[in-house]
Write a structure and sequence with these properties.
Layout lengths: L10 E6 L2 E6 L5 E3 L25 E5 L12 E7 L3 E3 L5 H5 L5 H29 L1
Antiparallel strand pairs: 1-2, 3-6, 4-5
Length: about 130
């Protein structure tokens, strides 16, 4: 079974009239937002992010800010649950709906899309058989 927390990209390709629509539902890269260290418009790549393996659903806790800016050494070993995320790119469904740590909702997008396509195809087939 695929691990839901890994950054695997899932794409659904819909081919219609030689056009391909790709709906990206998995975010490739995201990290927790640290409001104490970031301004109004946070960026994904920072120099102050701690040099530890921290999953995207938790955030490192600050020891104490020195000089008003964050550094790699500003963080303790403790972590807390993350409630806000910063995405590398904001042009995906995951970023638009803020679904970084909600894998079941990410999977539900693809499921609902496939169910909708199946129903639309059955309806279109019925209409073609009836009126053509």
């Amino acid at each position: 079974m695929e691990n839901d927390n890994e950054g695997n990209e899932k794409e659904i390709e819909v081919i219609e009239k030689k056009e391909v629509e790709i709906i990206e539902t998995m975010e490739k890269f995201s990290r927790c937002r640290i409001p104490e260290c970031e301004g109004q418009y946070p960026v994904y790549n920072t120099t102050w992010w701690p040099n530890k393996n921290i999953d995207r659903c938790t955030r490192p806790l600050l020891k104490e800010l020195t000089g008003g800016t964050c550094t790699n050494d500003s963080f303790s070993d403790a972590v807390a649950v993350c409630t806000e995320w910063v995405y590398e790119t904001n042009d995906t469904v995951v970023a638009a709906l803020n679904l970084a740590c909600q894998p079941w909702k990410i999977n539900m997008i693809g499921t609902m899309h496939n169910i909708g396509m199946a129903l639309a195809m059955m309806g279109a087939g019925w209409l073609c058989d009836r009126y053509v």
